[in-house]
Amino acid sequence: MRLVHLSDLHFGRAHPELVAPLLASVSALAPDLVVISGDFTQRARESQFAQARAFLDRLEAPWLAVPGNHDIPLDRPLSRFLRPFAGYRRAICRDLEPVCDLQGLTVLGFNTASPRHWQAGHIRRARFAGLLARARKAAAAGRQVAVVAHHPFTQPDGSDKALIGGAAEALEAMACAGVGLILTGHLHLWRTAPFVTQDGRARILQIQAGTGLSTRERGEPNDFGLIEVGVARTGITRYQIAPTGGFGPAGQVAFRRTRGGWVAEAPPAALVQDRPMLHEMAD
C-alpha cells in the first residue's frame, strides 16, 4: 500500500505558490490513501478552512485526516471551549477519528487536539481505549495497523514543545495492541525512527512529517512523505521542495519488520537532515 503523508498545511500562513506543485506531486505518486496529520489552518478561521477544503477537493486519491491544535480557535475563547471542532467538522470531516481499511492495512485516526491542552495535546482515556480495541481486532485478523495523530508520541531532545502527557505509556499500550506505524506532525520537523519498548524491541515505527506548505519551516524545507507498506518491509521516501519550485525525492530509508521489531535496512542518516529519535522507556 502506498500512503502519502502530509501535515501542517497551515492555510492562512502557507506558501500559495507551493499548493499546485504539492498537489501535482501527490497525484503523480498515485497513492492508495493520503493521510493528513492535522493543522489544516493557522487560526481556525472560516476562510482558512475554505482554502483547506478546496485543497482536499483537488486531491485525486482518497484521504483520511485528523485535526491539529491550530484547527481549534485559540484566540476566540467561547468557540475554543464550547465548539472547538465546529469549523473542522463543517469544512473537513465530521469524524475526528476516521478509520480506513486497505489491503492488509488498517489506518486509524486518533484525535490528540484539545482546547484545554492546546499546544501539547491530550490523550482522552475513553477514546484511546477504543483505539486500542480497534487495533487489537485488526492485528488479530493479520492486518498491519497504522495510527495517524497530530502530536508526536516522542520527539527530539531539545524540542521547545511540551510532549503530550502519557506519551511513553501510550506507545507501550499501542505496541502491545499491535500498532506498527504512527504518523504524526506538529513539530514542523522530519523524523523517522523506531521506538524501543519495555521488552527491548523496536515494535513501533514513528514517522513524522514536516510542514507541507507553511511559511514556518523552522530551518527545514517544506516536505511530505511517501510510505510504502509491504507485508514485512516499509519504505519511507522524503519529498521536499526543490530550487526549481517542485517537490522531489530527497532521501529514502527502509525498515524490515522482524520478530525482534523494526530493523533499518539503511541508516537513518540516508534521509536528508534526519536525526535519530530513539527513546528507550525507563524500567
From TrEMBL:
Q: Which SUPFAM superfamilies match?
A: Metallo-dependent phosphatases
Q: Does the keyword Hydrolase apply?
A: yes
Keywords attached to this Swiss-Prot or TrEMBL record, sorted alphabetically, are:
Hydrolase, Iron, Metal-binding
| Molecular function GO labels | hydrolase activity
EC number of this enzyme = 3.1.-.-
Q: Report domain Calcineurin-like phosphoesterase positions.
A: 1-188
Q: Metal-binding as a keyword?
A: yes
Sequence intervals crossing the membrane: none
Family from the record: Belongs to the cyclic nucleotide phosphodiesterase class-III family.
Q: What is this protein called?
A: Metallophosphoesterase family protein
> Organism source for this protein?
Rhodobacter lacus
